[in-house]
Amino acid sequence: MENQSKQTVIEFLTSVKAVDLEKIGQLLSPEVNWSQPGSNEISGLKRSQQEVFEMVGKMFEISGNTLQLDDYHSISLNGNRVACLLHWMAEKPSGEKLDVYNIDIYAVEHGKICNVEIFSADQVQEDGFWTS
Question: Which of 27, 54, 58, 111 counts the most CB atoms within 10 A of its CB?
């Protein structure tokens, strides 16, 4: 189970880096719960794949389509849960930059990501950036 969960998350993160929306959709459960921290336009609990894609669309809109997963590290396992360190970068048309690390925890069931918890290393930076 742990190896399958790890492989699913690696495939997901590889797809996020490549912005392969079709593959991302295949790896997220339709009923995924996604907890996005902070107090900004993308914060809050998303309760479906559709709501997650709407959030991501808003992120690309705010960032002028520059949002990118720069890298991910330290894949750690606990049963069907996988934690990893992600580095995100973006730049608004105004020149404002996002350069932040997050710790994401993914839960995987039946080969699909069913729950995601995001922890930001700099929530103040994210709250400022994700407000249009």
Answer: 27
